[in-house]
Each structure stands twice: as structure tokens, then as C-alpha cells.
Amino acid sequence: MNAVPLEALQRVVGKPNLLVSAEERFTYAFDASKLEAVPDAVVFPASAEEVSEILALAVRYGFPVVPRGAGSGMVGGVLAQKGGVVLVLTRLNRILELDPENMLAVVEPGVVTGRLQAEAARHGLFYPPDPASLQFSTLGGNVATGAGGPRAVKYGVTRDYVLGLEVVLPTGAAIRTGARTIKSVVGYDLTRLFVGSEGTLGVVTQITLRLIPAPETVRTLLAVFPDLDDAARTVSAVMRSRIIPSTLEFMDRATIEAVENHLKLGLPTEAEAILLIEVDGRHTVVDEDAARVEAICREHGATQVERAGTDTERDRLWKARRSISPALGRIRSGKINEDVTVPRTRIPELIRTIRDLAARYDLVIVNFGHAGDGNIHTNIMVDRKDADELRRAERAVEELFRAVIDLGGTLSGEHGIGITKSPFLQWEVDEGAFEAMWRIKRALDPANILNPGKMFVPNRAFFAKGS
Amino acid sequence: MNAVPLEALQRVVGKPNLLVSAEERFTYAFDASKLEAVPDAVVFPASAEEVSEILALAVRYGFPVVPRGAGSGMVGGVLAQKGGVVLVLTRLNRILELDPENMLAVVEPGVVTGRLQAEAARHGLFYPPDPASLQFSTLGGNVATGAGGPRAVKYGVTRDYVLGLEVVLPTGAAIRTGARTIKSVVGYDLTRLFVGSEGTLGVVTQITLRLIPAPETVRTLLAVFPDLDDAARTVSAVMRSRIIPSTLEFMDRATIEAVENHLKLGLPTEAEAILLIEVDGRHTVVDEDAARVEAICREHGATQVERAGTDTERDRLWKARRSISPALGRIRSGKINEDVTVPRTRIPELIRTIRDLAARYDLVIVNFGHAGDGNIHTNIMVDRKDADELRRAERAVEELFRAVIDLGGTLSGEHGIGITKSPFLQWEVDEGAFEAMWRIKRALDPANILNPGKMFVPNRAFFAKGS
User: Fold this and answer.
1) What is the CATH number of domain B332-406?
2) What is the spatial distance between Cα B421 and Cα A186, in angstroms, rounded to a whole number?
3) Is B186's CB within 8 Å of A429's CB?
4) B305 to chain A nearest CA, in Å?
5) Contact A100 B240 (CB under 8 A)
6) Which end of chain B has fewer surrounding CB within 10 Å, N or C?
7) Beta carbons of B39 and B83 less than 8 angstroms apart
8) Minimal Cβ distance to A414: which of B185, B288, B417
9) Residue B70 near residue B90, CB atoms below 8 Å
10) Is B344's CB within 8 Å of A370's CB?
11) Crossing angle for the helix pair A311-322 and A253-263, nearest 10 degrees?
12) ∠A253-A255-A259 over CA atoms, to 5°?
């Protein structure tokens, strides 16, 4: 690996947009994983042309380029663990176009997700994907990771809203993919190949997004279940009733206890599960839908159901869900946060497996998340100074992943692979599919300058053979 | 190109599943384009393993393999214009699994789309994609072409329902892509790379599809407009009213005339446009939605609006739309059927451009299709024995494509590229994106055995350079 040519980079972006001091580089050594890797330099390009010039330098000098937005990813995807340059896209932060008639937006990757949502709302439109980080994460990062969120159960994930991209490839200048229309079958679907590719294939410099009409109103319900299977059967029954909730969130007993110990909200700590359910849509149906959902909850063993129509009541019901993260901080200083996903009927088996793991490895494991699409956030609480606890947690994660695959599930619903899950990618992806992915990586990034060592495990024999 | 090893093929599939006589091969020389190419042999594999063995033979002997379902494609995508073997997937026709609780189906590629829809309906579930050919086209073909249909405006296209695939690659055995859950971000999105790849990257042998709850009911409206812009503004106004119709079909004056001359339904031949609009969903809202849509039509200049609630009334309103194809057969023996797509607000400009082309080139051009997503089927009526008319039509197509690109549109909304549109692919796809596609093609099919000469133009300098 050759040194990063700082003078050449400075000629591309200008002095104020290149960070080289140790202190400044250190601030770009992190994301929301607890990993750390200090880059050799940090650059802030202002255009696709500058990105293109930086990639050309990277190919010539052989240094890694790690594209990055707000750094809110969970899996170390924006860490420069092989050195090189962190390429920060926050200066590309314009909403270039918002077309209410054709219901689409064209944005730069540095636009914060919540900002686009607010802008769309001013036109009665809606950009549904809602990762928890939406008030600071960027649309470029959402595209790179294929971000999801609670609303995915009804509205889908980021990939379902990306119509087209401008992408700078390491082999040349910017290309355009996709179209400004939902229908387009002209050549390969490069758009969705780049969505979720975690900055390993190209640098996204422009995004065309589909918007939809905003729902008129929303109703919120909170239901308490003494029995886990009853809660799971409720999830299926709601989905089968032809009502697709806009949110169907789940908290297990460990989560309820953690939140109650933290906040004293009066949550029933003997309950096995709480479901937080929202229905949205037309004024004329949401009350009917909410009543139907409430009836389904009660028929399936809910001992308590609360409904909210006003914003204040809604905030009260969401309080427990929103307090999970701070509450967990009181159990242990650290957590290993997985986002495994199983077909929704398998959730009870998953939760029971996790309880068994918690008992066998003497760990506190807290489960909550998006029950409607089977995406459960499994938090193994750890004190990172406790080497033994950390070791037990790591073993529990491996067993968890095996169980998820046995249940027909997937290792990551919305966080991605990055560094933290790359040792496990091949547990899920078969050898032929893995080879196909690596062939695509080599075809589009033959010098392997873009986010090297992410997603693919770098030290496998296959790689030595391939690159 | 070496000869096809018939004996080796026969050892793979057995004698009854290999066609070699001229008569039998001739029946696999066509699709819904008017092109013709007789293959050297036709094979009917019964499993992914047999497909894998056939591809291995193709790599060894260097003959082309052209995967095919029902052959209802419009662009010559299943024609063996370079010889070789047509690989027919109709024996792989089992619905392997229909899971109502997790709302998914696992099918083989030879399952006819309508059959899955009927099976899903028995469980109160719905597989929305509805290409016009759905009663005979196969799901494998739908996946290969990324098929759409009228319902796409509300429900999306085939790619939005494919969760995962089993695909046999020319470089090895079958791989699995995707997951059984909506959320999964584990490695590159190979699933959507194969959707719409027109049999050029791999042979799909199994498909996991997402199903959704069936809508409770549907209402149909037919609205007549004396002014084209009024009809177009109605389309936008309906979409902006927070009602997304499940169908929003458009017929222009030339179409109305053709159908009326054929059937004498009493259609207003002086009208500039007819919109056929459906709303579906909950019993409690469809009447309200239909009333709102009717009001919007009248506010925007509709001179006549009819509504249907019963199946009989609905059939009557659909009669004109369904009669277009037979009616066109009375104008000319042949037609050039394009499926250009523009942002929906640009439809009036597109229609005016087409009228101007019809006048300048002395052609009958009939436009109808999916106005909600801007996907307009443009039919240039031709007598294929009239060389001059054919030449004029071809020139009109070229001008049409230029206009569509200038309007921010795409050359194909749902038919794909195949042979007929391959000379125009690079009008829409920029050089860098085209090169990226070709790099992917070479990475996954280095021997170029799968559907060679489709999608990419085979005789460009780039190809000579690349392969």
C-alpha cells in the first residue's frame, strides 16, 4: 500500500477540505460500532468531478478510499481499518429537485434523511424509510446500507424508493443508473446493485427518490401480552386481517424490565411482550382499523390495550420504545447490537433460543424491534472491560447466527455487513453466490480501492486466488 | 461456434426432452415479436442440476443457451439468433410452497403467473404483477424481463415482489440469492441484478415471492375527455389526491376510433382521451375514493363519467380496453409495439410528438397504456409487405426514442431490450454504465454462452475490445 499523496488531494479539494492533523483525523475514526481506525487523511469533495479525481488518485497510488456520510452505521462500514482516505460526502447536501407532480426528489448523498422528509411533507408527500438515525443519518448512507426502519413492514425499505443514481466508479467518471420513472427495464438494474453495496462498488453522488402521498392520519396502540406465543400469533393475525400496520414494534420481557427500572412508567414487568402498533391512512378507516387491531389483540390474549389518537397520547405510548437505548446504558456500559431477521412466524422460537443462550452464557440479552417483518434487534449487554463476559457474548452471537439461519432467517435486516459481520457472511451466502459477488466487485473495482476489507473477509484463500 | 453435442444433451435430459427435428425446432423459433430464429436444438430440463449440466456443456462446446418460458416476450429475447440451444423451463412448473402466515410463495420458473395468483387468492392473498400475458406467461419469464402491468401504478412491478432466487450460473452450480424476509442486507443484491437481466447472466430455477393481503373490493370508472391536457391533468390530480388507483389506463383518440370502428360500442370518437380508473381496498373507502376520483375527473373537464361496482358493469367498462389488440388487427396486419415511459406530467407532450410523427411519416400510430406511471404503449401500424411504410415506421421509432429521452423518460417500461431494442440501449444508458453492465456480464458469464447478442449490441467496437 503506497502513501496517500496529500498534495495531490489538496489540489483536488482545496486546503480547507483536506484534514491531515492527528486530532482531526481521529474524529473520523469511528462510527456507531465501537470500533476505531484512524485514516491517513479525510477529504470533503464538492462534486462528482472531485470524487472522480480522488478515485483516480487512489487507483494510481493504491490507497483505500472509504466513502462516508454521517457515520451512524452500526457495523464499522466507514472505518478506514486499512488506512487510506475517508471520503466524506456531507458537502454534497443539496436537495436538487422536488417534483410534487411526478412525486420524486433528486438529492445529493449528504442530505439528512429527516430533512428530505420534512421538505416532502411541505408538499403533502412522504418519504417512508425511517432508520432510527434519520435525524442525522444521510440519504447517501441510507442508500449504501440499504437502510430500513419500523415503517418497512408497510412501506418497504430504502431500495424500494431509489429510482436512479449517479455513481462515480473507480474505473472512470460518473455514470447514471435507473430512470425517473418506476417502470424501466433498460439494461441491468445497476441501481439496486449499488443500494446496499456499502461503498465497495462506487461512490454515490446523486440519488433520485420516489415519493408517495402522505397518509392522512395515524392511530397508535400499545398491547400487553402475558404470553410470548400469543403476541407472535397476534402479529400474524393482524397481518392476515388485511390491515398492514405502518409500525408493528415488539419489546420482550427483558426490554420491558430494563425500561421500567430506568423510567418507572408503570409497565407490567411480568408481561412477556409488548406490541406497539400503528395504523395509518384515510381518516375514514384508521379508527375502524385501530378497533379491529385492538379486537385482534384482545382475542389473542392481550391483557391490556391502550389506544392513542392525539400526538400527546401517541408520544406517551412511544415513550417506552424510545427509552430503550438510554435504559440499556444502565444495565451495562456496552452492548453487542445484532439485527437478525426471521420469517415472522418464527419469532417465538428465536426469542426462546435467545433466552436459552442468555441462561447458558450468563448474559443479559434484550430483544426488541420490528416484529411485522421479523427484524429483531438483539442486544447482548456487555462490559467491554470484562474479557470473560465479552468472550461469552461472542460465543452467544455465533450460536445466535446459526439459529437464525436454521430458522430460515438472515443475519442482517438493516445494518449490513461492514467489518463486524464479515466473518459470518459466508454462513448465509453460499460459495457460488459469494464468488459471484466477488466477481462483481473485481469487475467494477479491479484495483480494490473502494472500502477494501469490508463485507468480504479479506484473508480467505479465495481472495488470494481472486485479486 | 462449435456444434451442439446432441448426444451429450440427450444423456442429460433424456430423449423425450430433447427436440432435434426441423419441425419441432421451428415451433421454438418465435416469441411475440415478429422475429424468427430456428435453434439447433430445444431442451427441457427437469431440475437445476440438469440446467447446470447443460450450461457446463455449453461452456465446454461453446454453444449459446437461450433460456425461455412461454415465449410471450415482445422483444425477441428468447430467440436463438446465434443458433445453439433453447432451454425451455416449462417442466419446472411446481408451486413448491405457499406460506400464508409469512405471506410468501416459492415457485419454479415455469409456473404460469395467473396460476400463482389463483392459488394465492384461495388464501386471501394477492400477487399483484399483471402483465397482459399473465394467463400464459411464466413467472420465470416475468422475472427475466422484470414484467410490469396496469397495477404497477399502485403495487409496483415484478422486482418489488421477488425476495430471493435460485440461479444456475454458467461458471458453476446453482446459487441462492436473497432471503425469505423483506429485510435483508447481507452482501450485494444479486436478486435484483438477475431480475430483468433477460437470461443473460444465469438461469433462474426457483423464485421466492412476496405476497400481500388481497384488497377487499374494487370500483371501476371510465371517463371521457375532449381535451388531452385535461386528461393528463386529471391523472396528476388523482395521484395528488392521496388516492393511488390500482389501475389508471389511458386510450388516445386513435385507439378510441380503432376500437369503435371494430366494435360499435358507442364510444365518443370525437373525444381526445379515455381514462379507465380503478380503486381498490377496504369496503368502507372504495366508494368514497371512487366518488372523489369521479369529482376530480369532472372538475378537470371530463364530459362523461361511468362507474361500475358489479363484475358485469366492470366487464362492460373494460371491454373497450380489452378490445384494443383485435381492433388494431383490422387497421394493419402488423404493428411495431413500443412501451416507452415518461414522467407522467410529460404524457401530453409525448402524445403530441407522436401525432406529429404520424402526420410527418404518414403513419397510423395508436397510443394507450398505463398513464399512472407514464408507460404508454405506442403502436405504429404497419403492413410488413409494404417496404416503404416499414422504413417510415422505423424512422418514426428512432425519432420517438429521441423524444422520450428528451422528456426524461425511458425506452422500455416493461418489455425489455432483447434484440429489437438493443441498437438503442446506448441512447439511454451512458457509456460508463454500459461498460459496467458489460463488465458484470463478463464476470458472471465469461464464455458468453447465455443469450449472447441480446441486450448488448454484439458488433460494437467495445465488444471486440471486451470479450
Assistant:
1) 3.30.70.2740
2) 9
3) yes
4) 24
5) yes
6) N
7) yes
8) B185
9) yes
10) no
11) 110
12) 120
Residue of A nearest to B174 (CA): A432
CATH hierarchy code of domain A217-325: 3.30.70.2190
Low-confidence ranges of chain B (pLDDT < 70): 1-2, 458-467
- Please answer whether residues A280 and A308 qualify as being in contact, where contact means their C-beta atoms are separated by less than 8 angstroms: no
For A95-213, CATH gives 3.30.465.10
Query: Residues 139 to 178 of B: which have CB under 8 A from any A CB?
Result: 145-146, 148, 152-153, 156-157, 159-160, 169, 171-177
Q: What is the least distance, in Å, from the CA of B125 to any CA of chain A?
A: 9
Q: Report the largest interatomic distance among the alpha carbons of chain B, rounded to a whole angstrom.
A: 69
Q: Is A367 on the interface with B (CB under 8 A)?
A: no
Q: Does A179 touch chain B if contact means CB atoms closer than 8 Å?
A: yes
Q: ipTM above 0.90?
A: yes
**In this predicted model, what pLDDT tens digit does every residue of A355-406 receive, in sequence order?**
999 999 999 999 999 999 999 999 999 998 999 999 999 999 999 999 999 9
In which residue are the cell numbers 410488413 written? B384
Identify which of A69, A433, A224 has the alpha carbon closest to the alpha carbon of residue B444.
A433
Sequence-distant (≥ 6) Cβ neighbours of residue A455 within 8 angstroms: A198, A200, A416, A417, A418, A422, A425, A437, B187
Sign of the C-alpha dihedral computed for residues B422, B192, A80 and A442 taken in this order: negative
Write down the pLDDT at residue B238.
Answer: 93
Query: Any idea which fold B217-324 has?
Result: Alpha-Beta Plaits (3.30.70)
In the CATH hierarchy, which top-level class contains the domain B6-88? alpha beta
Kindly report, residue by residue over A32-43, the tens digit of the pLDDT: 998 999 999 999
